[in-house]
Amino acid sequence: MPDPVPAQAELEQEVCRTAEQYDAVIVGAGPAGLNAALVLGVSRQRVLLLDGGPPRNARAQEAHGVFTRDGIRPVELKRIGLEQLVPYDVTVRSEPARQVREIGDGFGVQLGTEWVLARRLLLASGIRDLLPRVSGLKERWGRTIHHCPYCDGWPNRRAPLAVLGSHQEGHHLALSLRNWTEHLTLLTDGPDELTEEQRLDLQRLGIALDTRPILRLSGKDTVTVHFHGGETLELEGIFLNPTQDQRSHLPAQRQTAGGQRERHDQPPGRVGGRRYDRCPTVRDERGGQRHGGGGQPQLHPDSRGRARVWRRLPRVTG
Ligand SMILES: Cc1cc2nc3c(=O)[nH]c(=O)nc-3n(C[C@H](O)[C@H](O)[C@H](O)COP(=O)(O)OP(=O)(O)OC[C@H]3O[C@@H](n4cnc5c(N)ncnc54)[C@H](O)[C@@H]3O)c2cc1C
Description:
Largest sheet: 6 strands, mixed
CATH class of the largest domain: Alpha Beta
Strand content: 25-35%
CATH topology of the largest domain: FAD/NAD(P)-binding domain
Bound molecules: flavin-adenine dinucleotide
Strand order of the largest sheet: 3-2-1-6-5-4
Structural class: alpha/beta
Number of domains: 2
Helix content: 10-25%
Shape: elongated
Number of strands: 20
Order of helices and strands: HEHEHEEEEEEHEHEHEEEEEEHEEEE
């Protein structure tokens, strides 16, 4: 559970005084977050990438259909993604964002007890797969239990496979998967809810329909389906279409806490970012000059000659 946060005014005062500032904070270092960090990095933006844990496909042995990296291990893909950020002004921290708040004309992001400020916030926190409650299924997820024919169809081509699903989504996935194998069964784990037309589709494509209730799954490199009553079915793999929801609570928090203030109407801003308009009166730590909140941003060239203000964020003086 996120920690309780102080009142907005108190929080803004504290964060503007102490927080490290970035052009963008990216929450999540999966493929989406890594790619966004790369694009923002080459665009000379100062970026913080928060790596809060493994990507969605962490349990998969190989990722397929990934341009130039077909068959790569997901951990290796991530390693390369992180390595290619090194030349740029991208800081990677292995910790989750705990909550986000609108601060000034940007966002405050809490990590642990510390807050950072961002002109833009990118939530690339991914989704979570909610798997059906079949004994032995969760442990085999990403190994012999799959969801995506384009990802795991090729290694299982022509193999005896099943689709698990009793509704329209099971029918749809079975029709898709028929492209990869002719040895296909639709397992409904009890009475199905297919239409007559859907049954005819299955018959036409030679897809077996098996409505026996499933007791459990077993097997290491293959999967055995144990039905109630003691019968079994040997397969190379099972595909299913899990329900999904957001992996992180942050997107919902944004919707309830201030999603109405979206940023699309804002100008893109200057290279290197600009000072938060609503930060309290501040002092330039180099020259002692004071700026009031809401004034024009003070741009200073950094060591690479880029206009930069957030690097030398003025400090609150009392
Ligand atoms: C078993 C399996 C196999 C797959 N195989 C393939 C394949 O072969 N080819 C293919 O193209 N696709 C494959 N996919 C799909 C692929 O995994 C997703 O398309 C991809 O991971 C989506 O990337 P993402 O960056 O949007 O999300 P994710 O990969 O889920 O990354 C989101 C990241 O955000 C992090 N995060 C969440 N909350 C926070 C927070 N508060 N603070 C910081 N970080 C946070 C998460 O820990 C995670 O690392 C597969 C998926 C699964 C489940």
